[in-house]
Amino acid sequence: MVDLSEGKTVLLLCLIFLAVQTSGTRPEEREDLFEGDLNIPALAEASRDDVEFGMVLAARRFGRWPNGVMTYVISSAIGSSNRQKIFAAMAEWRAKTCLKFVQRTSQKDYVEFTKQNSGCWSNGIGRNGHGKQQINLANGCWGHGTIIHEIGHALGFWHEQSRPDRDKYISIKTENIRKGMEGQFRKYSHGQIDSLGVVYDYDSVMHYPRRAFSKNGRDTIVPKQAGAKIGQRSRLSGKDALQANLMYKCQSTTVSPQKTTTPSQKKNMAPEGYIIHLQSEKCFYPLGGKVPGENHPIVLSKCHKQTGRFRMYENGIIQHVLSGMCVHPTGDCSPPEDNTELVLSKSCDSPTRKFVINLDGLLIHSSKTCARPAYESVKDDTRVVIHRYCTASKFAFAFAALPRTNGNNLALGKSARQISTYEKGVASKAVDGVRNGDYNDGFCSHTLFSKKPWWRLDLGEQVSFN
To answer: What positions does the entry give for Zn(2+) binding (predicted)?
Structure first.
């Protein structure tokens, strides 16, 4: 919006659209709000061109949070269980990107999570630079993907179906849109929205559902790809994470290789996790899911909790947890030839077995080659091969580390059930008196009936206390 009295451009973006299949009006589609999702009275006085101008500013490469750190506070009106849901949504952003979230101390710009009875909305795309901005989560807005979606707006994401190339992928059925809500389906130009080269994502958590603002229960958005589903609100998609990493220029998730050290010497120091191909959201996996033998092929498949777990060592070696075997290109060529398959081997100490993961791909440190899916259309059991072309975002991988410990009850010795994780951080001493706070490194929670902490985080994890 444009504040006509001060001449400042402020954009209020709100209302996420859950993928429900009912024909009735949902709380997230309030017709009393300007264009359905702009919840400030001055917008009613602003011209359509003014609002468009505000959207242009917000949707371009402005408003990034410095160093990828979003500062926040949580309203005291939000209870402990809902706070945990906010932390879980933040944790997913953090696990799949380089973004971080810290509680505000004295920072000028920050996001306040509120619980007003006015729907699900965020009053900015990216950091607005004017101090406090808000994410509101009313009743009905506490789904995991819904919170992820609203945080996405505050980080700088516009709705997926507003992209300039959307007509190649979806059709808008204006005849089914409620009167006055047509503006919710506008398309913007390349100068207004920059998707950073990431292809259109039907699976984006930022995409409207099929029947958003429907007046008759029929589809308002129809994917042109047969069988494509839109409007999911369960998780951050691989392309969402990829775009965030590109937007904030995330660096490698591993450190520079050090003096060669075999995995057996640093076994207890290497985190375990999944190696994820961000565009397809599929993980490294031994072909067939069995404990592999020598030169057993690595494929991309669903992320399996046991057989798909790897260790990533500081010197760049990647070890399969169950077998103890290490990732390397088949054969002894250095550098490997194009289309050499990636396999598992008993030998773990060789220049071609040391990798770096970053947005250019899974790189072999000793050469200018990288791992990539054998085919652009990635399905289960797609082989992973080595290639010299390593600069496309579609080859990006990430290492998603798993936690090593849970929270422990200091009095009873019972463990807490973990609901999500941050990648890094070792807790310092327990801190007294933190109540309903962000359960982060070194902080404690306590029961409402005790002045002393009952729970301590042993690592920087987010947990649900049973």
So the answer is: 149, 153, 159
57 belongs to a structural domain: yes
Structure tokens belonging to residue 16: 């996420």
Distance CA 372, CA 390 (A): 8
Assess whether pLDDT exceeds 50 at residue 437.
no
- Residues 298, 220: one domain? no
415 and 385 together in one domain: no
Task: Based on the fold, state whether residues 325 and 241 are members of the same structural domain.
Answer: no
How far CA 196 is from CA of 26, 200, 325, in Å, comes to 33, 11, 37
Instruction: Identify the domain containing residue 316 by its residue range.
Output: 272-401
Alpha helix positions (H), 184-275: 238-247
The answer to whether residue 21 is domain-embedded is no
On the CB side of 285, CA atoms within 13 Å amount to 24
190 marked among binding-site residues: no
Q: For 204-219, what is each residue's pLDDT tens digit?
A: 999 999 999 999 999 9
Has 296 been labeled as part of a binding site? no
Is this structure's pTM higher than 0.70? no
Q: What is the largest CA-CA distance in the chain?
A: 72
Yes or no: say if 80 and 69 are a contact pair by the CB < 8 Å rule.
no
In the residue annotation, 150 being an active-site residue is answered as: yes
In this structure, how many other beta carbons lie within 10 angstroms of the beta carbon of residue 263? 20
73 beta partners: 112
Do residues 393 and 433 share a domain? no
- Listed residues 195, 219, 251: the one ending a domain: 251
User: Is residue 285 a contact partner of residue 301, using CB atoms and an 8 Å limit?
Assistant: yes
Domains of the chain: total? 3
Q: Which of 28, 29, 92, 150 is catalytic?
A: 150
Q: What is the token pair recorded at 360? A: 């250019």
pLDDT of residue 246 exceeding 70, the answer is yes
Asked if 414 and 393 sit in the same domain, the reply is: no
DSSP calls for 338-396: TTEEEEEES---SGGGBEEEETTEEEETTTTEEEEESSSS--TTEEEEEES----GGG-
Any idea what DSSP says for residue 125?
S
Q: Is 207 annotated as a binding residue?
A: no
Do 234 and 298 fall within a single domain? no
Could you read off the pLDDT of 83-116 as tens digits, one per residue?
Answer: 999 998 998 898 888 899 999 999 999 999 999 9
Average of pLDDT values for 336-348? 81
**Same domain, yes or no, for 224 and 283?**
no
Which residues are paired to 420 by β-bridges? 462
